[in-house]
């Protein structure tokens, strides 16, 4: 099994070399968090981790105290100083007004790469896929996770999916740099660019550009739906998979579960300045306070952290003792199986079993070799690019209305003139005018597209006049999108039927 090493943090590596203890911000979290964090820290410290822990409070009661992202301003100061965060899962309170702490920390600290290895431990942990060893590199800051959502009409709500070129470039570069550093042979990209041609299309295109710089590493692209099916059925076909945020979020849980258990999977959130290490699972409140939860995901995340801060020998000792424990059949309830497991243990007893095995290597499973198997690599940056020639050619006006398309078109056409024309109306993306079909179901949310006529120009003053006209007409427009070309290429989807 390939060890799970992120790149080394230079400051931290220096500190380790000078035998100083590296400051690490630690949060015990909610639910099962405190139990699995105590167990993990006990193992790491017994293994000789040179870390100075700086605890912070995050999570449920911090939310309840009025901090909408579940974290206090003082905690941010600590995090920005240590630059390394070891975090147990937290409970996000239900209901409006609360922001996801995870998303906030990842985005605020620029932790753009979420590295999630899923490994099968056959025959010691039941799995449908012996030999599975997949690393999902999930883009961590963009996509539908911007949290920009609006209700626009009685019937329609929207969520903005934002994808940037630097975001795509950095995550694609990270995936290939990771593959090269870990001796992995292939990087696969999952997108849905047959439907989302601009956003996912950009992700795919940038992936192809970056792939060309790594000729020794195979590359391929799968449409995410069939790719996900293949991953669930034949994970051995994949090595490193890079994907936009939402697909990566969903599929890394699937990958962890089919490998053995969500309780086993660690994750590293890597940025240029800081890094955060956590299990992929949540706070499992139903299991809290019973000393039954599996601390493995958080413990292996701790091993990734030790490698990151320049102590790969500690990472290796912990990981190998953990593998030996799993091989010896000492299992928590979630992976316990009669006939395979030998002893069912709770959280702390599992940690003690790992501690007893420190210094041992697994007999059957491949030992972890953090120091020799992975080369440290710098966090990649995006390449600066000159701005494109950007030209305004029209406007999409979104309207709240409950009338037939033909009637709406007649009203909207009164705003057109000899410089620009109403060229189409769509409802939820389906063209309903001109030449719509009576079978198309329509909601109360319409997109009306105005484009400059051939040889004519469109500008923002014309857009304002158009909107003023619609206002006097009593049209309830709820949003507009400018239509630009970039170096002559349309920067907007053409719409079905065009
Ligand atoms: P969950 O991952 O907490 O738990 C789902 C189920 O998986 C549990 O009931 C349990 O049966 C099993 N499980 C998870 N971790 C386990 C472990 N270590 N050992 C044994 N079994 C384990 O998912 P959920 O119930 O959907 O979410 C609970 C809370 O966690 C929610 O408030 C959610 O917002 C939060 N959450 C936090 C994080 C995070 O902090 N990183 C991530 C995901 C969910």
Your description of this structure?
The protein has 498 residues and is of the alpha/beta class. It is built from 15 helices and 20 strands. It is elongated. It starts with 9 loop residues before the first helix and ends in an 8-residue tail after the last strand. Bound molecules: nicotinamide-adenine-dinucleotide. Residues 32, 36, 89-92, 102, 262-263, 278, 281-287, 293-294, 297, 334 line the site of nicotinamide-adenine-dinucleotide. Nicotinamide-adenine-dinucleotide (NAD) binds next to loops.
Give the gist of this structure.
The chain is an alpha/beta fold and 498 residues long. The protein is 33% helix and 22% strand. The protein has a ten-stranded mixed sheet with strand order 2-1-3-12-11-4-5-10-8-9, sandwiched between helices.
> Can you give the mean pLDDT?
93
Alpha-carbon Rg, integer: 26 Å
Query: How much of the sequence is in beta strands?
Result: 15-25%
The distinct bound ligands, ions and cofactors come out as: nicotinamide-adenine-dinucleotide
Q: What is the strand arrangement across the widest sheet?
A: 2-1-3-12-11-4-5-10-8-9
Major pleated sheet: 10 strands, mixed
- First-residue to last-residue Cα separation: 50 Å
Number of helices: 15
The outline comes out as elongated
């Amino acid at each position: 099994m390939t060890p799970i090493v992120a790149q080394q943090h230079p400051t931290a590596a220096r500190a380790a070399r000078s035998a100083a203890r590296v400051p690490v911000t630690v949060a015990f979290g909610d639910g099962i968090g405190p139990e699995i964090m105590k167990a993990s820290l006990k193992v790491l410290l017994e293994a000789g981790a040179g870390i100075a822990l700086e605890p912070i409070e995050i999570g449920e009661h911090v939310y309840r105290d009025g901090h909408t992202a579940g974290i206090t301003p003082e905690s941010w100061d600590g995090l920005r100083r240590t630059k390394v965060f070891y975090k147990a899962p937290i409970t996000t309170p239900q209901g409006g007004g609360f922001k996801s702490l995870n998303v906030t920390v990842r985005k605020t600290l620029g932790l753009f790469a979420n590295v999630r290895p899923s490994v099968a431990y056959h025959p010691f942990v039941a799995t449908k896929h012996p030999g599975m060893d997949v690393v999902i590199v999930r883009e961590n800051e963009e996509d539908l996770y911007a949290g920009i959502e609006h209700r626009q009409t009685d019937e329609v709500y929207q969520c903005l999916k934002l994808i940037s070129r630097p975001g795509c470039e950095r995550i694609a570069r990270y995936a290939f740099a990771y593959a090269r550093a870990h001796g992995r042979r292939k990087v696969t990209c999952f997108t849905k660019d047959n439907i989302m041609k601009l956003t996912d299309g950009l992700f795919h295109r940038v992936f192809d550009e970056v792939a060309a710089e790594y000729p020794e590493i195979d590359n391929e692209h799968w449409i995410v739906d069939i790719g996900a099916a293949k991953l669930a059925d034949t994970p051995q076909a994949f090595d490193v998979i890079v994907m936009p945020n939402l697909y990566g979020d969903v599929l890394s849980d699937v990958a962890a579960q089919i490998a053995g258990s969500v309780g086993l999977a660690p994750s590293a959130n890597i940025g240029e300045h800081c890094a955060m290490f956590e299990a992929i699972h949540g706070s499992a409140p139903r299991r809290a306070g019973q000393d039954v939860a599996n601390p493995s995901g958080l413990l292996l995340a701790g091993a990734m952290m030790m490698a990151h801060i320049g102590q790969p020998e500690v990472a290796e000792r912990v990981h190998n003792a953990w593998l030996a424990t799993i091989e010896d059949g000492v299992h928590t309830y979630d992976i316990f199986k009669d006939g395979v497991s030998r002893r069912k243990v709770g959280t702390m007893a599992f940690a003690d079993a790992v501690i007893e095995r420190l210094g041992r290597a697994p007999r059957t499973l491949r030992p972890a070799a953090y120091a020799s198997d992975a080369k440290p690599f710098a966090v990649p940056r995006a390449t600066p690019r000159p701005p494109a020639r950007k030209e305004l050619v029209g406007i999409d006006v979104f309207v709240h209305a409950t009338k037939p398309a033909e009637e709406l078109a007649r009203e909207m056409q009164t705003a057109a003139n000899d410089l620009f024309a109403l060229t189409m109306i769509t409802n939820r993306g389906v063209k309903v005018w001109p030449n719509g079909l009576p079978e198309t179901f329509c909601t109360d949310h319409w997109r009306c597209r105005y484009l400059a006529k051939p040889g004519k120009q469109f500008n923002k003053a014309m857009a304002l006049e158009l909107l003023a006209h619609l206002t006097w007409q009593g049209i309830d427009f709820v949003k507009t999108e400018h239509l630009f070309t970039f170096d002559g290429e349309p920067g907007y989807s053409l719409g079905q039927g065009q």
